[in-house]
From TrEMBL:
<dbReference type="InterPro" id="IPR036291">
    <property type="entry name" value="NAD(P)-bd_dom_sf"/>
</dbReference>
<comment type="similarity">
    <text>Belongs to the glycosyl hydrolase 4 family.</text>
</comment>
<dbReference type="Pfam" id="PF02056">
    <property type="entry name" value="Glyco_hydro_4"/>
</dbReference>
<dbReference type="Pfam" id="PF11975">
    <property type="entry name" value="Glyco_hydro_4C"/>
</dbReference>
<dbReference type="InterPro" id="IPR001088">
    <property type="entry name" value="Glyco_hydro_4"/>
</dbReference>
<keyword id="KW-0464">Manganese</keyword>
<protein>
    <submittedName>
        <fullName>6-phospho-beta-glucosidase</fullName>
    </submittedName>
</protein>
<keyword id="KW-0479">Metal-binding</keyword>
<dbReference type="InterPro" id="IPR022616">
    <property type="entry name" value="Glyco_hydro_4_C"/>
</dbReference>
<dbReference type="InterPro" id="IPR015955">
    <property type="entry name" value="Lactate_DH/Glyco_Ohase_4_C"/>
</dbReference>
<keyword id="KW-0520">NAD</keyword>
<keyword id="KW-0326">Glycosidase</keyword>
<keyword id="KW-0378">Hydrolase</keyword>
<dbReference type="InterPro" id="IPR019802">
    <property type="entry name" value="GlycHydrolase_4_CS"/>
</dbReference>
<feature type="domain" description="Glycosyl hydrolase family 4 C-terminal">
    <location>
        <begin position="190"/>
        <end position="417"/>
    </location>
</feature>
Length: 449
């Protein structure tokens, strides 16, 4: 089994390789090809993987290349985890928005739109190459904004691209644990878009345990989302939102906290990682990772008074490599599994069309990911989901046409951007910050990437 990792010089690749090293079952991945546009980062991560593989006799073979077609040829699975523009790009996404007084964040609000506008053309190029060079490969997309990027790729690859995120599984695990249930026994009733979903129930042995949690003030206030959103608000909406909904429900507070912060998350990670890539080693990778996890969503927790993260959460945080591996296993070995994934809607949410990529529990087997039927979302959640999907569609349209006006429309329609004038200035700000957005000339057409 051959796995190709796009963004192979990325900081999280050792997590994926670590999960592969622990898999000794038949049908496991035996060859890994790392691809990256940055040869130096590729060399650094290659070296870390070599250290990881020491004393593991059946460690998957690793090779690295900067040639995309060469990386894709012969792949059974393509794992796409790229960061167009790098962490400097992320920091600029955050900074330009915050300077306008709106949320600057990796995937949500104006920052997420800018990131999407930069990433979609590259993701489409990759999808086209996969179709040409490795048409039978399954593509697992972790590239953010994951829902939008998966939808862009699915226009070329159909259901052979599946988007993943670790946040719904983390949420399900926390809710199960606080209820004293084994996460493996729980059916998590969760649906929405990526980073915009709600857990509406958690069924164990045929019984929904969520009402018990909502009714118990002490229990509800004892875990991450209870502290982040406040118990009253969780009871008001009768569901546990994805942590990224903090940016919607507490927009003012997070914008203020982010503006007052010394550095944005992207700037912090950029500093941290330039130190790591200057002298890469397994030990310094592990230290850097621990520090990164300890500071995850720190400003949101500060803004809400939620305090420190739980020790159990810190130990287990991330987990996207586990989702990726579980997905690969279910497809490659036809071992049926239920996973929360980003796939085409079909008829799951009535307010969206069939091709809209949503995040929903799916049954996975050798034929891919099949979304399960879920209860409809309440009106306020449907409103947010349709508003954000409309924004995503404008981003896809702008990436295709190169129209500046369409890009302005994408920003202006977002629920966290409160003025068309601001949207217009944001486009100017991002055009100044990112050479990768030069294709958005007034009414001009984008040259193919
Ligand atoms: C979670 C989300 C990812 C996101 C990451 C950001 O894992 O699911 O989509 O990229 O957090 O973490 P970072 O440490 O980069 O701020
Ligand atoms: Mn995610």
């Amino acid at each position: 089994m051959r796995l190709t990792i796009l963004g192979g010089g990325g900081f999280r690749v050792p997590l994926v390789y670590g999960a592969l090293l622990a898999d000794h079952a038949p049908g496991r991945v035996t060859e890994v090809t790392l691809h990256d546009v940055d040869a130096e980062r590729l060399r650094a991560i290659n070296g870390v993987l070599r250290e990881q593989a020491t004393d593991v006799p059946d460690a998957p073979a690793v090779r690295a290349t900067t040639d995309l077609d060469e990386a894709l040829r012969g792949a059974d699975f393509v794992f796409s985890a790229i960061r167009v523009g790098g962490l400097a790009g992320r920091a600029a996404d955050e900074q330009v928005a915050l300077a306008e007084g709106v949320l600057g964040q990796e995937t949500v609000g104006a920052g997420g739109i800018a990131y999407g506008l930069r990433t979609v053309p590259v993701a489409v190029h990759i999808a086209r190459r996969v179709k040409e060079v490795a048409p039978d490969a399954w593509v697992i997309n972790f590239t953010n904004p994951a829902g939008l990027v998966t939808e862009a790729m699915s226009r070329h690859l159909g259901d052979r691209v599946i988007g993943i995120c670790d946040s719904p599984v983390g949420l399900g695990r926390r809710v199960a644990r606080v209820l004293g249930a084994d996460p493996a026994d729980a059916w998590v009733d969760y649906v929405g878009l990526n980073h915009l979903g709600w857990l509406r129930g958690l069924r164990v042995h045929g019984r929904d345990e969520l009402p018990r949690l909502l009714a118990d003030e002490k229990l509800l206030g004892s875990f991450e989302e209870g502290r982040l959103f406040g118990t009253d608000w969780l009871r008001s909406i009768g569901a546990i939102p994805n942590e990224y909904l903090h940016y919607y429900y507490f927009n003012r507070e997070t914008v203020r906290a982010y503006r007052e912060a010394e550095r944005t998350r992207g700037a912090f990670l950029a500093d941290q990682q330039s130190a790591f890539y200057a002298a890469p080693s397994w030990a310094s990778w592990d230290r850097t990772r621990a520090e990164r996890e300890a500071t995850y969503m720190a400003h949101n927790r500060e803004a809400s008074g939620a305090g420190e993260r739980d020790a159990a959460d810190l130990e287990e945080s991330g987990g996207y490599e586990k989702v990726a591996l579980a997905l690969m296993r279910a497809i490659a070995r036809d071992e049926r599994a239920t996973l929360i994934l980003n796939v085409r809607n079909r008829r799951t949410l009535a307010a969206l069309d069939e091709d809209a990529v949503i995040e929903v529990p799916c049954l996975v087997d050798a034929n891919g990911a099949h979304p399960v039927a879920v209860d409809p979302l309440p009106l306020h959640a449907t409103g947010l989901v349709t508003a954000v999907k409309a924004v995503e569609r404008e981003v896809l349209a702008a990436a295709e046409s190169g129209s500046r006006a369409t890009a302005v429309k994408a920003f202006a329609l977002h629920p966290l951007v409160d003025s068309v004038t601001v949207a217009d200035r944001l486009v100017d700000g991002y055009l100044g910050a990112h050479s990768g957005l030069a294709y958005l000339s007034r009414g001009g057409r984008r040259k193919d990437v």
